[in-house]
Design a protein that fits this description.
395 residues; mainly beta; two-stranded parallel ribbon; globular; 16-stranded antiparallel barrel; Porin
Length: 395
Amino acid sequence: MRKSLFWIVLISPYLSFAQLSDSSKTQLKNSAQTLIDSKDGNLLLAAYGEVHFNQPMAEKTSYNGSLDVHRQVLLFGYKFDNKTSFITEIEIEHIKEVYLEQAFLNYKAKPWLNIQAGLLLIPIGIINEYHEPTTFNGVERPLINSTIIPTTWREIGAGVAGNIPSIGLRYQLYAVNGPLGFDNEAKLNGEKPIRGARQKGSQVTMTGIDVSGRLTYYGVRGLNLALSGYWGKTESSLYHNLHDDSLSMKSRADSSSVGVRMISGDFRFQKKNFEARGELILMNLSNTSQYNAFTNQDLGKTAYGYYAEVGYNIGKLIHAKNKVVPFFRYSNYDTHQQTSASLIANPNYKNWAYTSGISWFINPNFVVKGDYQHFINGNNNTLNMINLGVGYWFR
C-alpha cells in the first residue's frame, strides 16, 4: 500500500499532460544558476537561511526541544566578462561551524555549454542542489537527503553543464574526487552509509576519479523530470605511500575502500494551486564484506529511499496575499535493504515517516513553516516530532 501511494503520486504528472495546452517551459533554478544568469551587474550578492525548533514526543518519555539557527548562507558571484564568472557559497551552521559549500568558475563556451571547475555540488536528487528553504515544504529536508544522499554533498572536480531550451533539457556531467571512506578509522557505516565520508573540499585525499551526472527535462509547463547518477569508489588514506610489491599492504588498502553506484529519479510538478514532488534513490555498495571485516562496521550492500509529496495553495481561499500551502509527505528508506552473508540486517535502519504541515509565505522570499512527523522503524518503535521554522532567500 505504501509503495502504491508513492507510484500513484509519481505518475500523476503524466496523467495531466493532455490538459496542458500551453507549451511554455518552466526551468527551476537554484541560487548558483540564478546568479550566473543574472543581468544585475558584475558583483552579485545573495543569501538564504533558516531557524528551526524541533520537539520530539513519545509515550512515557520526555524530551527537551531544540531551538537552532540551523544555517545562514552568503552567496557571492562575480562576472569577469560575458563568458566568465565565479560563484561561491559560505555557510555558517549552528552559529559556530563555517563551511564552503560551493566555489567554482563558470565559463560559457557556447550558449548551451558551460565549463565548470572547483568545489561543486554533486548533481543527484532534488535537495542537494535546490536546498534554499523557500524551495521546499517542511522545516527539515526530506529524510533520504540525510541518510542516503548525504546532503549537502560537494566535492572538488570539473565538468560541463548547460541548457538546450528548444527541447527543454538541462544536463550536467562532472568528474570529482570520491568520498573518504577510511582515514585511520572508518568513515562509512550502516545507518548513514556515506554521509560521514564527504570530503567537502578540505585537504582532499584522491586516488581515482568518480563521475556524477544529471539530466533534467523541463519541456512541459509546470513539470521538471530528472535522472541522476553517481559512479566511483571511496578514497582511503592507506593508498598513500603504498609499495607495489607489498601484497599485504595492497590487500589492506583494498579492504578499506568500497565501490559506490547511485541512481536517482525525481519530479517536481505544479499546475495552478496544486503541487507535487517525489524522489527515488537506489544505492549499491561493493566490497562491503571486506570493509566490514577490516573496520568492524555494519555497512550494507544495497539501500533505497523514496518520498512522495502533495500540496495545495489555499492562499486565495483564505484571502492571503501570498502562498499558503498545506502539504503531506510520505517517506520510506532502508539502508540495510541487502547485506553481506555475514551481516544480519538491522531493522532500525528501515524507516517510514509521515509528515504533514503548512508553508506560509509572508513574502515570496520569506516563509514560515510548521509540520508534524510520525516515525516508525522496522522494530515498530515510534517517535513523533513537532517542527517549526522560518526561512528566507534574497538577492
